[in-house]
């Protein structure tokens, strides 16, 4: 977890596609092949729900039936997760994405700038009472969580609950983790969906100017958003809307601490912020890999991938492909061009990319302006999740300017 990149280098040296015997997965690790797999309609996502040793049983691939039974969580309880835009192909994907994408256009996101700046400075003000803090808990988590919570219409006092649920939920994405962690993921998902069922019911009686109300209206209109789709979309927007951005801000901070020359370069040249964020996304990609299924026999490089086989597109490996990025293992804040795949590619390109970029730019603009003498107070702690890579804690010492 500290440094997966040497492992990815080994995979790239094996060839365009690496085969993992234990899982039967094909790993795509080079940049051009990753773009091909992400954009080609002969690879899909909906089929992931029925791939694997229990293919006769429509299931969430990371939550085997045995875990649902052990934890007393029913299949129907978790059904909304199988109906999100992240889990389906066109035309359902197109319909679901169109319902929310207008809220995340660059123009709409830019309107949030004053509010995001206010939140970031308020969080740093709270840190001013101390000279040591966990940067994740004090800043990197609450900034994007507060923003997406306000957009959805989630009460601010519930953010700590979401942090707990989200941390456990995303561990369920990594099938290599111990069963007890995946059991906890099932429970966290069930609790989060239960929370949204209550919140949606409340909104039906008292509408508000937020995304949940807009989604309810879509469900009651000709666009036919089912109850499961509504709940699944709420859960997806909340978790995806803060988890990866938290990881970007936290891992980006650690990267800059470990590269003090780059940190000072950013302080002295704030105009570098946009390209710096792109480089931090490339250098330590929050989403390490994404799955697809071959919908027909298809060749990548000299490898034939049979129909029905799962393909793991390793974004983090592609983002350090030396055939595309000069000095790929070196941090270059002014790197140009920078065709990284941290937000994916194709129809599943991250819906919240504009919001994540703006939040990260504001976060680091505030940090370089107000925090000085930054150093690690203790070693950072990485989450064990190998799919969504992020820091659980980043203890730092610092001085703060008002």
Please give a structural write-up.
The structure is a single chain. The protein has helices at about 5-15, 30-40, 65-70, 90-100, 105-110, 115-125, 135-140, 140-150, 160-170, 180-205, 210-220, 225-240, 245-260, 260-270, 275-285, 315-320, 355-370; strands at about 15-20, 25-30, 45, 130-135, 290-295, 300, 305, 310-315, 370-375, 380, 390-395, 395-400. It has about 400 residues and is of the alpha+beta class. The protein has a single domain, classed as Cytochrome P450 (Cytochrome p450, Orthogonal Bundle). Strands 1-2-8-5-3 form a five-stranded mixed beta sheet, with helices on both faces. A hairpin with an 8-residue loop joins strand 10 (about 380) and strand 11 (about 390-395). Helix 9 (about 160-170) packs across helix 10 (about 180-205) and helix 10 (about 180-205) packs across helix 12 (about 225-240). The longest helix has 27 residues, at about 180-205. The relative contact order is 0.19.
User: Stretches where pLDDT falls below 50 for ≥5 residues?
Assistant: 51-70
Span between termini:
36 Å
What's the SSE pattern? HEEHEHHHHEHHHHHHHHHEEEEHHEEEE
Globally, the shape reads globular
What's the CATH architecture?
Orthogonal Bundle
Strand portion, in percent? 5-15%
Tell me the name of the CATH homologous superfamily: Cytochrome P450
Question: Which fold name corresponds to the CATH topology?
Answer: Cytochrome p450
User: What is the CATH class designation?
Assistant: Mainly Alpha
- Counting DSSP H or I runs of 4 or more residues, the number of helices is 17
Kindly state the mean pLDDT as a whole number? 89
Number of domains: 1
What is the strand arrangement across the widest sheet? Answer: 1-2-8-5-3
